[in-house]
Amino acid sequence: MLEKKEILDVEKVIRDFEVLTKDAENVQRETLKMILEENGCAEYLQNLGLNGRTDPESFKACVPLVTHKDLEPCIQRVADGAFSPILTGKPITTISITSGTTQGKPKFVPFNDEMMETTLQIFRTSFAFRNKEFPIENGRALQFIYSSKQIKTKGGLFAGTATSNVFRNSQFRKAMKAMQSECCSPDEVIFGPDFHQSLYCHLLCGLIFHEEIQLVSSTFAYSIVLAFRTFEQVWEELCDDIREGVLTSRITFPPVRSAMAKLLKPNPELADMIEKKCSGLNNWYGLIPELFPNVKYIYGIMTGCMEPYLKKLRHYAADVPLISADYGSSEGWIGANINPSLPPESATYAVLPNIGYFEFIPLKENVEEHMQENGNVSFLSMEPKPVDLTEVRVGEEYEVIITNFGGLYRYKLGDVVKVMGFHNSTPELKFVCRRNVMLAINIDKSTEQDLQFAVEEAAKLISKKKLEVIDFSSNVDVSTDPGHYVIFWEISGEVSDEVLTECCNCLDRSFVDGGYVSSRKVDAIGPLELRVVRRGTFQKVLDHYLGLGAALSQFKTPRCVGLTNNKVLQILCDNVAKNYFSTAF
Ligand code: AMP
Prior knowledge:
Elements: H1 10-22, H2 24-39, H3 43-46, H4 56-62, H5 68-79, E1 94-97, E2 108-111, H6 113-133, E3 140-143, E4 151-152, E5 158-161, H7 162-168, H8 170-178, H9 187-190, H10 195-208, E6 213-220, H11 221-244, H12 254-261, H13 268-280, H14 287-291, E7 297-301, H15 310-317, E8 322-324, E9 327-329, E10 332-336, E11 349-351, E12 357-362, H16 367-373, E13 387-388, E14 397-403, E15 411-423, E16 426-434, E17 438-439, E18 446-447, H17 448-463, E19 469-477, E20 484-491, H18 497-510, H19 514-521, E21 529-533, H20 537-547, H21 566-574, E22 576-581
Parallel strand pairs: 1-5, 3-6, 6-7, 7-8, 20-21
Antiparallel strand pairs: 1-2, 4-5, 9-10, 10-11, 11-16, 12-13, 12-14, 14-15, 15-16, 17-18, 19-20, 21-22
Helix pairs in contact: 1-6, 10-11, 11-13, 11-15, 17-18, 20-21
């Protein structure tokens, strides 16, 4: 008998979302109350003297703003198997390990059933809006998803990356079926121990089911680009496997081999067709729709540090829409993309007011005004006071603070967001950048976004020659006097010294931060250095992180390397092929 397929009631999901967002202020109060009632007995809250109070005012008066570092000892005790409630009322059974790619080292954060539920709520919400505009029916998804190794902490808790915790969850799998977005690859591939082998098999599965694929996705857009770059290298081998019905010997893990053997049958017609299509493409333009003629859209997080990969993704996608996935972190989800037809560069995320209690630290120019309005006249300390979810202002930038069901209270996430508008009474946020990724030598404060902009400008000079910057990072070199910015580039082919010197000058001129420009003019910052690294260097950086236990699904190339990730700096420096100094200014 055929299994009855449960289909998500998207109209109901949208109705529920509308109700929640119409009354965001009250929903926030109620959510905070629930979090504090559920976890009031936890040692962390007990020590702060809330004495059972659950209103936002008491909460803010008693509970300090914290970073991960402040909570680390508590989280470690949880991971070590502490018997008493430390951060949450109910025991934490799972730990998420963050990618560690922005701050240098992976961090532990608690994960529990409530966080799983919020994950599902976010996924369902964005799917409901997406499916109205881009319906998928009875299709399969080619998902480049990978699990990290699951380890057991000293206290016996399972620890893995947040995405792995989610992929393993049975409720999540059921939800994916209901959203008709089931991954076309068998579990053995997703949970395989070697990402190179899993990536090859994902591609093979996609080709086997090529007509049924309606969706190509990954957690972050980086993995989709990496997958099709790999396809360019291995497509002939993939065709051989399909032609003969025998998996290449490079896949060595027996469970992956036997799972793939069940899918792979000799199919010379399919192999011929793929070969013909690949040979007919111009520099792989439009590869995705060519291979998967029924694909409706491409889905994954495409904002923030993923934007530099969009150009390449568009090249592979031709006119297939790119839709950015939702906004969240291992620490918790924040918002859903409910405007899927917007291009990723304009994507915003509507905050779901019942998945956590959110506060926002005003940044930049709006600090003073917010402080006056909030009656905070301690201008001397200039400590900006966080505002509530419904108090944020359109056009302003803020740092996000999360309080959630997983034992984080007033936790500074370190992300900068800009309020673009409101959906009912909940804000729609644009992701701006990580707050701590910053190049600074003198009075300059160049953000991840400033760096991305400069690289984008300079890369235009090599795109005229049909070449591209595959990946990039940066560092401040203060071993010279004055110190200077160093930008590392991996490029897709050979470029003349003349053009690269021009790129170096362009990078130097394109940092828009006022502090940088004025410091450069008076030589308080030295000429910018462009270091071109050998092909495959950023793959070594990726391998380094995977070796530390990170999962490809959550990987983000570190855009600024230095003290906290010395090893990465060393990999980059060891692989420099050429370097150039700017003559601009
Ligand atoms: P991790 O928990 O290690 O996977 O990293 C979470 C971080 O990824 C967030 O704090 C953001 O900096 C970034 N991130 C997550 N979702 C998005 C998004 N939709 N757009 C831009 N950056 C994102």
